[in-house]
Amino acid sequence: MKHFIRISLLFLCILLLCPPAVQAQDDNPWKAVPTCIFGMPAIGHAVKKNGTGVIIDILKAVYEAEKIPLKHVELPYKRAIEGVMSGEIHCTLDIKDNRKGVLQGTATIATYDLAAAYLRKTGFAGINDLAGKKVAYLHGFDIQAFLPVKVIPQLVYDLSSAYHMLEREHAAYILDDIVLLKDAMFESKLPTVDFEMSPIESYEVRPIFAPTDAGRRFRDIYDRRMKEMFVSGEFAEIMKANGIKASNIQRVLDLN
């Protein structure tokens, strides 16, 4: 009998000393991913270098209401895409329905209005004018994938330098979102009267999430919270606080 008691006590001690790792993980599925990691390069007013900007403010409102911090990691866009697909980071931005192998949010968070900037004397009659020409755009962004004609890429690390390429005729056009092009034109400190811009096409922008359990949880929270924020007006208020015009706010709301 004493021998049986000793064995029982020994077995109990073993159970107490061995942490039930699998059970703890099931009870707390957020333990491994307490923070939502958003990877994106700085892109004008949308994502700023200091961890602010309209997109970051919206995503913070999405997750911090659920007591989940959002952390912005500044990465080249190509690296951010690779990080999401591998599960190294949780989310980034992409054009709607542009990429397979990821989890896409159902709510449009912004629009990307692709436009061409060029010297006034060069002109721009339409997208076919880009064919075979030297076209500057940001390194890491595959703008060629959206064009029906082949261009000669002139990759740059900031758009303001691309305007100096235009001025010297080292490039014929710059392609990017029209708001970013306008901001970069002023940053270049070149005479603005020398340049013109023409819109090409508008795309819906949505977050994409890692194809992991954590990515799926963050995607589901995003979908639910964005619906709530559209209805409550919180989304529009964040956009307004970031200087977005009422017409542009309504445009995004109409897409949802």
Structural class category: alpha/beta
* Distance between the first and last residues' Cα: 72 Å
Count the helices. How many? Answer: 9
Unreliable stretches covering 5 or more consecutive residues: 1-27
Helix content: 25-40%
Name of the CATH homologous superfamily of the largest domain: Periplasmic binding protein-like II
Strand content: 15-25%
What is the β-strand count? 9
Mean pLDDT across all amino acids: 87
Q: Count up the domains.
A: 2
- Largest sheet features: 7 strands, mixed
User: Can you name the CATH architecture of the largest domain?
Assistant: 3-Layer(aba) Sandwich
Describe the protein's architecture and organization:
The chain contains 9 helices and 9 strands. By secondary structure, the chain is α/β, with parallel strands linked by helices. Helix 5 (159-167) packs across helix 6. The protein is globular and about 55 Å long.
Summarize the topology.
Layout: H1 2-17, H2 21-27, E1 36-39, H3 54-64, E2 70-73, H4 77-86, E3 91-95, E4 103-104, E5 110-119, E6 134-138, E7 152-156, H5 159-167, E8 173-177, H6 178-187, E9 195-209, H7 213-232, H8 234-241, H9 246-255
Parallel strand pairs: 1-2, 6-7, 6-8
Antiparallel strand pairs: 3-9, 4-9, 5-8, 5-9
Helix pairs in contact: 5-6
